[in-house]
Amino acid sequence: MISEEEKEELKTELAKLEDEISTLRQVLAAKEKHLVEIKQKLGISLMNELKQNFSKSWHDMQTTSAYKKTHETLSHAGQKATAAISNVGTAISKKFGDMSYSIRHSISMPAMRNSPTFKSFEEKVETTVTSLKTKVGGTSHTGGSFEEVLSSTAHASAQSSLAVTRLPESEEELQC
Question: Which of 116, 110, 142 is nearest to 129 (CA)?
């Protein structure tokens, strides 16, 4: 039990602490107001402060071990994906190279067209062409066989190789 005298001392101390807290709050409010005035004079806006806080937070996050481990893992995964895609590209190039070699070295076009590699390629191209025609043109048009696509591509290629670019012959033509 607390004596009456101790109770009075504690009540006095409590009142004194409450007055100090009130005074400190008033001082803090005055200092915050002064801070806002200084920032306004210096042209420091809330947006600038947010940018600075974000930059500092981003920097702090990048220095954490979790971020570093995640960065390393994703970088390693990206390198593996790049290598895998490169291997696929190499395999496709090799297949095309094999087909080109076959065409140049004694395999007739009908024999090549019956090869499993060409059949697979032909089916994929026909599927892709049909899909594109459906998506772009609305409906699939008849007469869009693989042979026609090859023929039109060869024709377009021949046309572009026949086109001649005329070079300027005089200084006057160069200046125009």
Answer: 142
Side-chain-facing half-sphere of 31: CA atoms under 13 Å: 6
Distance CA 116, CA 119 (A): 5
Distance from C-alpha of 9 to C-alpha of 168, rounded to nearest angstrom:
107
Q: What's the chain's length in residues?
A: 176
Give the number of other CB atoms < 10 A from CB of residue 100. 10
Each residue's pLDDT tens digit in the chain (176 positions)? 889 999 999 999 999 999 999 999 999 999 999 998 998 888 888 788 888 888 888 888 888 888 888 888 888 888 888 888 888 778 777 776 666 555 555 555 666 667 777 777 778 777 877 777 666 655 444 555 656 656 666 665 555 544 444 545 555 555 55
Angle between helices 146-162 and 116-137 (to 10 degrees): 80
Contacts of 151 (CB under 8 A, 6+ apart): none
| pTM for this predicted structure | 0.30
Query: Which residues, including other chains, have CB under 8 Å from residue 121's CB and lie 6 or more apart?
Result: 95, 99
